[in-house]
Amino acid sequence: MQKKLYIVRHGQTLFNKKNRIQGWCDSPLTKLGHRQAKATKEYFEKRGVVFDKACCSTLHRTEETLKDITDLDYSRYDALKEFNYGLLEGESTDLACPKKDDLNTYYVQFGGETPKQVEDRVEKAIRTIMEEDDAKSILIVMHGSNSFRFANRVEPSKARKMRKFNNCIIYEYEYEDGHFDLKQVIDEHVKDLKEEEDA
After folding, report:
1. How far is CA 190 from the centre of its chain?
2. Does residue 171 sit in helix, strand or coil?
3. What is the DSSP string of 17-69?
4. CA distance 23 to 82
5. Is residue 89 left, alpha or beta, with left meaning phi > 0 and alpha meaning psi from -120 to 50?
6. What is the pLDDT of residues 20-44, one digit of tens each?
7. Which of 21, 108, 172, 194 has fewest C-beta within 10 Å?
8. Where are the alpha helices (DSSP H) in 77-180?
9. 10 Å Cβ neighbour count for 36?
10. How many CA atoms lie within 13 A of 62 on its CB side?
11. CATH number for the domain whose boundaries are 3-20+29-84+114-198
12. pTM: predicted TM-score of the whole model, two decimal places
């Protein structure tokens, strides 16, 4: 059975605005973050996208975003949480991994995860979500790093070419017989929303 999967990054949070590393720690959406989520809802509505099922991580920022997008009941999955940055959680983003080549080991020294660990747990959770019932159009709200890590696991060449960084970006997939086909990564609905409007 062919299904559609839409993975949405949460809206802007207080830690995003303050340039703090935000993994398993949490902070609320800003006013701009809520506007981004509502713009995401409008994007789906204008295109006639109707969800049969909605899921998010156990971090509150994804729940806030999901509730701005849909009124559906939803399920929360611990395995959909963001990359764990260990003792660097809550610190300035200036302390984030300085070189992409070091990503496989950098956060481990602070008690954090490797990219493979993130990809393993997120992929397992998403495959469960896709196969546990007959829902044909599924919304998952999660996080920036793990959204990319999942795309990198299932469609690595496309993921690197399509990568975008905005809050509330949408990864659109088609899913059939265990295969994920990344169709597009969408930010047109949020790229003109400016942070200075949040005052």
Report:
1. 15
2. strand
3. HTTB--SSS---B-HHHHHHHHHHHHHHHHTT---SEEEEESSHHHHHHHHHH
4. 5
5. beta
6. 999 999 999 999 999 999 999 999 9
7. 194
8. 103-106, 115-131, 144-154, 156-162
9. 26
10. 29
11. 3.40.50.1240
12. 0.95
